[in-house]
Amino acid sequence: MSDTARVWTIGRLADALGAHREELSVERIESAEPVLRVTMHDHGDLAVFVSCAGEQIVVSTLLWPVDEQPEAEKFNRFLLKAQKLVPLSNFAITELDGREYYELIGELSIESSEREILIELRVLAQNALDAAADLRDAFAAA
């Protein structure tokens, strides 16, 4: 696909991303809002979830359960201060099956190019790996 503006749907995203088999795998998850599970092979098979919501494409990955984070309230404040250390991504807390998890999120325009979407997936995956390896240690040392 060219880098010209195109409005993406989950189906179009699945087809476009599916062409990059050497780097990632794509699985469509049917739910109230369809979601793609993109397995990033170059990033330890990290699962990144992709959805289309209004004018945005949202990419996200779960980091670790909040209840496994020592001093979670202090860590949450630390995350807000450390946010600028994780470019192009935002931290959130989301609930899944009754348990809260730290989540890393990136957003793009629904008209982003395929190249921009691939870059966002790569950056989010690398940021998640960096966060898992570095942020908890940095907090413990603070």
How are the secondary structure elements laid out?
Layout: H1 10-18, E1 24-29, E2 35-40, E3 46-53, E4 56-65, H2 72-82, E5 90-96, E6 99-109, H3 114-141
Antiparallel strand pairs: 1-2, 2-3, 3-4, 4-6, 5-6
SS content category: alpha+beta
**DSSP strand tally:** 6
- Determine the mean pLDDT: 89
For the terminal residues, how far apart are their CA atoms? 46 Å
Structure description:
The N and C termini lie far apart (46 Å). By secondary structure, this protein is of the alpha+beta class. It has a 6-stranded antiparallel sheet. The protein is built from 3 helices and 6 strands, in the order H-E-E-E-E-H-E-E-H. It is globular, with a radius of gyration of 16 Å. The chain has a single domain (10-141), classed as Yope Regulator, Chain: A, CATH 3.30.1460.10.
Question: Can you tag this structure with a few keywords?
Answer:
YjfI family protein, Yope Regulator, Chain: A, DUF2170, 3 helices, globular, alpha+beta, six-stranded antiparallel β-sheet
